[in-house]
Amino acid sequence: xxxxIALTVNGEQCGGDVEPRTLLVHFLRDQLGLTxxxxxxxxxxxxxxxxxxxxxxxKSCLMLAVQADGCAVTxxxxxxxxxxxxPVQEAFVNRFGLQCGFCTPGFVMASHALLMRNPNPxxxxxxxxxxSNLCMCTGYVQIVEAVKEAAVTLEQWRTSRx
Amino acid sequence: xxxxxxxxxxxxxxxxxxxxxxxGQYVDDLSRPRMLHACILRSPYAHARIISVRADxxxxxxxxxxxxxxxxxxxxxxxxxxxxxxxxxxxxIAEYASAIEKVRYxxxxxxxxxxxxxxxxxxxxxxxxxxxxxxxxxASIEDAVADGATPLYEELGSNVGWQGKVSYGDxxxxxxxxxxxxxxxxxxxxxxxxxxxPFACLAEHSPERMTITCNSQSPDVxxxxxxxxxxxxxxxxxxxxxxxxFGQKIHLIxxxxxxxxxxxxxxxxxxKWIEDRSEHMMAGGxxxxxxxxxxxxxxxxxxxxxxxIRDTDDVGGSVSTLTIHFTNKLNNLFNTYxxxxxxxxxxxxxxxxCPVVPNRGIGKPGMCFVWERMMDRIAQExxxxxxxxxxxxxxxxxxxxxxxxxxxxYGSGEYDTLLDKALKNVDYDGVRQxxxxxxxxxxxxxxxxRGEPDKARPTLLGIGVxxxxxxxxxxxxxxxxxxxxxxxMPGAGGVEGxxxxxxxxxxxxxxxxxxxxxxxHETTAAQIIADVLGVSPDRISLATTYDSALSPWGVSSSNxxxxxxxxxxxxVHGAATxxxxxxxxxxxHVLKEDMGRLTIEDGMVYVGRLREAGAKSAASGPAVSFAExxxxxxxxxxxxxxxxxxxxxxxxFHSHPHADxxxxxxxxxxxxxxxxxxxxxxxxxxxxxVETGRVRVVRYVIVSDNGTLINPAVVDGQIxxxxxxxxxxxxxxxxxxxxxxxxxTLTLLDYGKSTTLETPHIEIxxxxxxxxxxxxxxxxxxxxxxIPSPAAIASAVExxxxxxxxxxxxxxxxxxxxxxxING
Lengths: 162, 824
Ligand code: FES
Ligand code: FES
Prior knowledge:
A: alpha+beta, Ubiquitin-like (UB roll), DNA polymerase, domain 1, 2 domains, 5-stranded mixed β-sheet, 5 helices, globular, B: alpha+beta, Aldehyde Oxidoreductase, domain 4, Aldehyde Oxidoreductase, domain 3, 3 domains, 7-stranded mixed β-sheet, 28 strands, 28% helix, binds FE2/S2 (inorganic) cluster
């Protein structure tokens, strides 16, 4: 038994037939081929599957695909524009904010969500916020540095635009 | 070599852009037409006999394509040969990819299903009916060696799977002339680096070969396993992006490669199997629980003249990794110290727990823990300063290259300076002052105003300073020192290759002999090639990740053993150097010039040493570009010098040119366990909440000698990550079993992995002392800070708790355990 869903993913209209038990993360990965969203635990502990649903940060292993019917989803693939990385992505590259890269899409999405809410976070705020995600490789130091750098870049963007 | 401009720089990461945009390619991202999905049935018991397995109901479920039961697996495959990790096993024991007659740990695989979807495969698992006869489980060393304990392997007669000893110098004589014998019992618990991406295999069987794509750190293990188990010659192993390894993905993953491959053979369709988190926690492999009884023979001034260590390793429910945690202690057996007389006795005890596997340093964190805890204990017993006792025993700079009594050769090191700098950076005296003030406050709080609601909770400050070596670059013959008669030795020294190629259009591609698990191998190798060839790193890229059919691999081609710095760097440098010669030979012919007069800059070959003549760049005069040379080398024999081999591609296999002496063990059991020795001093400052037992790491300072740094940002990353793991291990992460052998920590949350909140901001200073024997003076930086950091935290917590007279003997220092220490 399947159900048809329709949603916007990274600005594009998509749909599909899903079993009611299909997790959103599996729908994105297996049915839409958006494999940038990773599965590290499938029980909401690691944050590797973090995406935005209607602008809110969500662990997509904790949501059923049917619950996303009618929603607007942004995954890691939707963050950059062709030819240019998003400032959060760029900062992770610059600051070596990753090693194996498996946690990275989740950290980038979580950092992006943090900076949308709080454009100028302190180190403590960054650490508190990103404690939703786990990285087994980096020891977090360069991730925190990346978020700080991204905050500065985004601030420059805003001031240069106004 | 052309000018050095990229080696030593924080060159931009080559891997990061794809990962930050979700374009990494991990096994689970791959899909094949008609691909099936596998799921594994695992034992709910820690110890049981398998009476029967019935799979008919599962087979009948629509969408199920195959089920393999223990009987099928036994009929279709051969057992693994006991490899080097099982060296010392006294009777041959057949171990298949799944349990056959008995299960020996909860989570051991029993059956595997292939179905059209993962969900159907999971449903099918529920329909397999297994009859077990439960047996008493040994969930601790104590239970396993108790009289009347049920043996895991009847063939062995008892649960002591191995017992042995190494001895160097004259230990008894040293003990006879000691002023004092310092004794201590120490313990390290079970933990793992828990790579975020669990095991993953995709098997494809064609008439030509079996191709397995999996996230193995040591593809040679998979290669051998498939050849042995399936009796196949034609095996191809591919390793795409790997979501972290840390040793976890070296060994047990071979079982799953075989099971997935058997399904691919049976169904004649591609089969993918992805482990889930709880499967990984219970069956993916753990670092070994180790118990030590230590005696140190010391002089009154703190000199350690002899050491006796008895090490008991809880190796879990398999003989396949019986001795790895013991043999790896040979690598840092003497740490940074001059002691000449030492005995290490080992005992490997089988228990009904997850088998042990290599994990970031393997036995080395335990060995360092022994040394550094003992240094503190010796200082306490002699009434000396703990740092002064360490200094009394350090190998002095004048002694390098230094040969340890068991045959390791330390190329270079400045251990005293590492300590000096660590003390300065952490403001040691300042911490001591603050500690004294705080202790006064706490004493007053505890005696008078306990329980006042708005009083800040009493905390005690503590500092621990430790030092350790980090061995790098494996000698494949190491274990022959202990097990000279073992038939399964994988070789000697090391071999590893790299291919570097200038393409027809002048860009450069390369292939390494080993896989990467996130250590920026592409970035680092490109920096070396850029400098050797004289071309921008932007024009250099990795041709393919590991593919056994294409990658120039050898015994050292493993993302383990801290091998990259020695073997891959040597190989890529060697290949690029030879390619440069070839390129210049062709350029000299084309430009009708002497090779010695040619200069390379930014992908162009010029005549004359224009740079030295003071020109800003070599922009004028006769020149030929890499692209023009590429066109000739691949398509125009008429322009090649006579006898020139076409193409611009070189494969070079590197072996350590200084692998001797002691590549092979001598009659006294001395051998080079590893070839390079990085070192670091760690200073940890902690605050212990006296009421809750919670430990907070206030500062964590590292001064590290990793030899010549190729990319300091990459090395920083390795140090941060390995330190963070060691700190998390010390603070509370770990596997906990019930007395029935059930794992109680099946999730990352229960397991207690540190997040951004518990992990401190780690501070690093580099103090590179180049290695005299390696290609660029480089040393290792992968296992790194995971080796001394558990000892540093233990030392700091003990220091904080010294008003209570408490001794820290084991890990982890979780709030509950610290609270118990404080409250007796
Ligand atoms: S996979 Fe969703 S939180 Fe781990
Ligand atoms: S980079 Fe490997 S888990 Fe974070």
